[in-house]
Amino acid sequence: MATVVVFASSLFVTLSLVSLKALELNSGKKNFVLKLISKLDNGTEKLVSILKFKILQLIQSVRYIVLVEAKKVISDLFYDTQERILNEYRIKQDIMMGRKEVLNKGSVSFYLKKIAENKGNGEKGKIE
Predict the structure, then answer these.
(1) Which residues fall within 8 angstroms of residue 8, CB to CB, at 6 or more apart?
(2) How far apart are CA 24 and CA 27, in angstroms?
(3) Could you report the per-residue pLDDT of 52-86, keeping only the tens digit for each?
(4) Theoretical Cys-Cys bridge with 104: which of 5, 36, 41, 109, CB 3.0 to 4.6 Å?
(5) Rounded to whole angstroms, how far apart are CA atoms 110 and 103?
(6) pLDDT band at 24 (very low <50, low <70, confident <90, very high)
(7) 105 Cβ contact partners less than 8 Å away, ≥ 6 residues apart
(8) Which residues, including other chains, have CB under 8 Å from residue 112's CB and lie 6 or more apart?
(9) Cut 0.85: pTM above it
């Protein structure tokens, strides 16, 4: 039933617009209904241009987020993962190789501690 009502109303509107256009063509001047409808054209055009602008802004915002912010997040995650892996490697290396504390107060123990400190700081481990 609803389909019949929708179809009948749209058929009525279509036929009325066609008949108004026929009257306009015969008389040469616009009907008041057609004048109202023609005023909507400018508003519709303005609305479409505003929507287009807003959609372009949204696309640029999404593009910025994807290309710049996502790159930062991924690089931070990569750095954190790399640090975690290196720390685990160092811990396992200490377990396997055995970290020895030099407790002797002699001159050799001083140099061995310096070499161990330099290696811990990322240097080659030599004393100058």
Answers:
(1) none
(2) 5
(3) 999 999 999 999 988 888 889 999 999 999 999 99
(4) 109
(5) 9
(6) confident
(7) none
(8) 102
(9) no
